[in-house]
Specification:
Blueprint (H helix, E strand, L loop, with lengths): L1 H8 L1 H4 L9 H4 L3 H13 L12 H5 L6 E2 L7 H6 L8 H23 L7 H25 L12 H4 L7 H18 L15 H16 L9 H15 L26 E5 L10 H8 L3 E2 L1 H6 L25 H6 E2 L4 E2 L2 E2 L11 E2 L23 E5 H15 L5 H14 L10 H15 L6 H7 L3 H4 L3 E3 L5 E4 L14 H6 L10
Antiparallel strand pairs: 1-3, 2-8, 4-7, 5-6, 9-10
Length: about 500
């Protein structure tokens, strides 16, 4: 009988579709499944290689003159030291992997969603979100590795495994095209609470401005590119012109980085965290591990509260170097003599440099016995916030104009006024205003992982990273090195070269 059953079945009865899991054909059949697919596109943002893991964006700060990562968490200290190779830094590999993981998910959605029977306006919006995310993931690749394989079709291991690198210009062209497309269909804001955190028109325009700042910069164009500076200014101004719909600077700089104020009026695009399912470890890093320890060079960079640098201000006291500083220092950094979690801070509280970071943690001066462990932090990470748009506009506009005008001053002074700092007076030269804006970016975004890209696009990393890093007592920890011929770009990960010999390694690796 068994033989008769097998004989009678035929091959078609043995080729059954599994009913305990989705296949690509069975998944893209409903609106709810398409929404789940888009959720997967966003989920990659929380991976180790991008803006999540334990504390990746906070560790990125340690590749700058602002902070030090004593145990090479995430592989960031070898980058800061200029000793990275194609195989010795975790972040070099994971950023590549996770960026392409996100791209693959976005491409899969874009390739399949048109065949899903669903609300037409929702479908167009979701395509806009996926297109924005693809541009964001490609921006991570283009701005760290240079040219990379440009893949716009759904994943195919046969045809895509041996693709060569596209020129960086081709990748950037596609990024800008995607962002224009996304901006044309995405809403300015969401009114349904469950949609808060999704990509918006403002997010697409702000990322476009950020990308164009990189393209116009001395790193890409030795003398700068005025046409691209103008496009960057226009993109940032388009976000500013959306101001009436909700974007503004949050009133309290310190509280901006607390979970109670996630998705505030200042948020342009956040990575959403909720514990314990989808948390980070930002609080643990800041309170205990101190692997994003600020260094003395950052302290010295903060202006005095009268708006003058410490070398010029009568308020500066070498015996008390932390007194009378820009208020943002006290809202970002814990220092010897400060109060933290209700206790006086001694030099042994944060033993690495003497300094700790309170930004992106729930911990501050007040007593706080909450002991958040790994994966329990739920402060959103702000990929782009409105202060960035204002300073991006000021930077780009300053490069376009021969003499700084009131629009530049207004943008910078909005940020400084929120901080409690004196306004920049009129009459500055273009070069003076450039220095002011660069310092303002360093201070405003200290601890947020923004400065590493800034010093590379400004092509100043070869100066500021060839220097010792100092503790609070000005004792050297190590001397960093940075090769101008090599280190502005990361190596293509060695494992990728092993898999695909057609990939060419960046110079010097």
């Amino acid at each position: 009988m068994i033989g008769m059953f097998i004989t009678g079945c035929g091959n078609d009865m043995l080729e059954v579709v599994p009913n305990d899991r989705y296949t690509e054909d069975s998944f893209w059949t409903s609106e709810s499944n398409a929404v789940m697919g888009l959720t997967g596109c966003y989920a990659v943002l929380r991976n180790d290689g991008l803006f999540g893991g334990t504390a990746t964006p906070l560790w990125e700060e340690t590749a700058t003159p602002n902070a030090y990562n004593y145990d090479n968490s995430g592989g960031w200290n070898v980058i800061a030291s200029g000793t990275q190779t194609a195989t010795n830094s975790t972040i070099v590999s994971t950023r590549w992997d996770d960026s392409y993981r996100g791209i693959g998910r976005c491409n899969t959605l874009l390739a399949n969603i048109d065949g899903v029977a669903m609300n037409a306006s929702l479908k167009e919006r979701m395509k806009g979100e996926a297109t924005f995310l693809r541009a964001l993931y490609y921006s991570m690749l283009a701005n760290y590795y240079g040219g990379v394989p440009l893949i716009l079709d759904k994943p195919d291991p046969v045809t895509q495994a041996s693709l060569p690198r596209n020129a960086r210009e081709e990748v950037v062209k596609q990024i800008l095209k995607d962002l224009d497309q996304a901006a044309s269909v995405l809403p300015v804001k969401y009114t349904v609470s469950s949609d808060i955190g999704r990509a918006t028109k403002g997010a697409a325009l702000a990322l476009k401005a950020r990308m164009l700042l990189f393209e116009a910069s001395p790193l890409i164009n030795t003398t700068g590119d005025v046409a691209k500076w103008k496009l960057a200014a226009d993109a940032a101004k388009a976000v500013i012109d959306l101001n009436g719909t909700g974007y503004a600077l949050f009133s309290d700089y310190r509280k901006l980085f607390l979970p109670a104020n996630d998705n505030s009026v200042e948020s342009i695009f956040d990575v959403q965290y909720i514990a314990p399912q989808l948390g980070s470890s930002f609080d643990l890093i800041g309170r205990q591990y101190n692997t994003n320890a600020p260094v003395r060079d950052l302290i010295n960079a903060y202006l005095m509260k009268d708006g003058l640098p410490q070398s010029q201000s009568p308020l500066y006291d070498p015996a008390n170097p932390h007194n009378n500083r820009d208020p943002r220092m006290y809202q970002t950094i814990v220092y010897p003599g400060d109060t933290f979690q209700g206790e006086l801070v001694t030099a042994s509280r944060f033993v690495v440099t003497g300094y700790g970071t309170k930004k992106y943690t729930i911990y501050d001066k007040e007593p706080n016995s909450v002991n958040l462990q790994g994966g329990r932090s739920e402060i959103n990470y702000m990929v782009i916030r409105y202060a960035d748009v204002l300073l991006s506009y000021a930077e780009a506009q300053n490069e376009v104009l021969g003499t700084p005008d009131a629009t530049i001053l207004d943008a910078v002074n909005l940020v400084r006024t929120r901080a409690g700092m004196p306004k920049v007076a009129a009459g500055k030269t273009k070069a003076e205003m450039r220095d002011i804006i660069r310092l303002e970016r360093r201070i405003e975004f200290a601890g947020e992982g923004v400065y590493y890209t800034d010093i590379r696009r400004w092509k100043t990393a070869e100066v500021v990273l060839n220097a010792p890093i100092l503790t609070y007592a000005e004792k050297p920890i190590m001397t960093r090195t940075f090769s101008a011929q090599r280190d502005y770009w990361w190596p293509i990960p060695g494992v990728q070269l092993d898999r695909n010999p057609k990939l060419e390694q960046n110079p010097g690796y």
